[in-house]
Amino acid sequence: MNLTITGHHLEVTPALRGYVEEKLKRITRHFDHVIDVAVILTVEKLKHNAEVNVHLASKDIFVETSADDMYAAVDALADKLDRQVVKHKEKAGGHHHEAGSPKRQDVETETE
């Protein structure tokens, strides 16, 4: 997994970089096929924005959040991204191949 962290109007400190890396490890717990992750951290007046673009083998996932604190924005970003990766994994996971799915029941009854 290639990880790129960029800061706009913000210096990405080693502590902030480590925090982002730690939070994004949750993605690989659910899905091993992450090719590239690009994180952009931005400060606009009093609003802290965090956005991430995750390139998977079959899809790109984009998430953005904003908060009053950069660490809170990264936390919310990790939560949103985790939900989207799990949702993509469930959709892509061959759930039509189960014996209990409606498509498989139609095929089994026709062949009998």
**On the 0-100 scale, what is the average pLDDT?**
84
Helix- and strand-based class? alpha+beta
Please provide the count of β strands. Answer: 4
Task: Report the oligomer.
Answer: single chain
Tally of individual helices: 3
SSE pattern, N- to C-terminal: EHEEEHH
Q: Which class in CATH terms?
A: Alpha Beta
Task: Give an account of the 3D structure.
The structure is a single chain. By secondary structure, this protein is α+β, with helices and mostly antiparallel strands. The chain has one domain (2-111): 2-Layer Sandwich (Double Stranded RNA Binding Domain), CATH 3.30.160. Helix content is 45%, strand content 32%. The chain contains three helices and four strands, in the order βαβββαα. The chain has helices at 14-30, 70-92, 102-111; strands spanning 2-8, 34-44, 47-56, 60-67. The chain has a four-stranded mixed beta sheet with strand order 1-2-3-4, with helices on one face. Helix 1 (14-30) runs parallel beside helix 2 (70-92). The longest helix is centred in the last third of the chain and has 23 residues, at 70-92. The N and C termini lie far apart (47 Å). The mean pLDDT is 84.
Secondary-structure map:
Blueprint: E1 2-8, H1 14-30, E2 34-44, E3 47-56, E4 60-67, H2 70-92, H3 102-111
Parallel strand pairs: 1-2
Antiparallel strand pairs: 2-3, 3-4
Helix pairs in contact: 1-2
